[in-house]
Amino acid sequence: MKTILHKADTRGFANHGWLQANHSFSFAGWFNPERINFGALRVLNDDVIAPKMGFGTHPHNDMEIITIPLKGVLKHRDNMGDEWIPVVPNEVQVMSAGTGVQHSEINGSNDEYLSLFQIWIIPDKQGVAPRYDQKTFKPEDRQGKLQTLVTSFNDTDTESLKIHQDAKLSRITLAKNTPFTYNLKSDTHGVYIMNISGEIELNNTTINSRDALGVTDTNKFTINALNDSEVLFIEVPMISL
Q1: Residue 158 contacts by C-beta under 8 Å, 6 or more apart in sequence?
Q2: Nearest to 129 by CA among 96, 103, 175, 93
Q3: How far apart are CA 32 and CA 29, in angstroms?
Q4: How far apart are CA 110 and CA 144, in angstroms?
Q5: Binding-site residues, please?
Q6: Global pTM?
């Protein structure tokens, strides 16, 4: 098993006033040649957006985009007919940009900050029809057990949102001193572990809140919660760019 630790304070950071953005991988004005991607995972942004502010209409193509609100309310509009749809914590949003899509994302609150993860995954096919979807995932369904959020269209899981890539996004809430063993789809996949909150450990490596650990060259691994923790797993094929 190989691992790579990305401490929270080594991420790129941009302060735009209305937006506080942490970049796990090279993005916009932050470039690190050693932090371009983790396999098919291209972007993991940890954003805090001021009330009533957000991203104006802008284009994307040939990318699978996943948004996970953590606090506040996100509102989404696009050129596929979706008009200011709210997306709140315990919901997940997916968008296949495909041949091209225009969308806007704003903080839908007048007084509360919006906190979210935005994730870009490189698709396994280009030129697909653009699409949008979202779904609610109950927090009680990830207490001490893995809750699958997103899988491939080719995956047999019927409860998850779907993207054009052999990836799997999942989430778990662990009580202090609880171990959890994660089983990978194959040894050609890797898992990017983002510790949303708390403190976990893997092979004597401590992963604090907003730290991340990339795991490759294994079929399974076991983490242990040193404190009450919430963990996001992003499993992707370890493709090269």
Answers
A1: none
A2: 96
A3: 10
A4: 35
A5: 58, 60, 103, 105
A6: 0.97
DSSP 42-66: EEEEEEEE-TT-EEEEEEE-S-EEE
Q: What's the pLDDT tens digit per position in 30-89? A: 999 999 999 999 999 999 999 999 999 999 999 999 999 999 999 999 999 889 999 999
Domain 2-237 listed as CATH 2.40.30.170: no
Cβ-proximal residues to 87 (8 Å cutoff; 6+ apart), any chain: 67, 69, 73, 74, 75, 76, 93, 134
SS3 letters across 168-208: EEEEEEECCCCEEEEECCCCCEEEEEEEEECEEEECCEEEE
Tokens of 206: 């401590």
In 7-142, beta strands by DSSP E: 12-15, 19-23, 41-49, 54-60, 64-71, 74-78, 85-87, 91-96, 101-107, 114-121, 131-136
**Six-digit token string for 101:** 């899509």
The residue among 30, 108, 100, 31 whose CA lies nearest residue 65 is 100
- Token readout for 107 is 């903080």
Annotated binding site for Fe cation: 58, 60, 103, 105
Q: Looking at this protein, which amino acid is placed at residue 216?
A: T
Where do the structural domains in the chain lie, given as residue ranges?
2-237
- Is 116 in contact with 196 (CB distance < 8 Å)? no
170 CB-contact burial (10 Å; exposed 0-12 / middle 13-18 / buried 19+) = buried
Q: What is the pLDDT of residues 128-142, one digit of tens each?
A: 999 999 999 999 999
SS3 (DSSP) at 138: coil
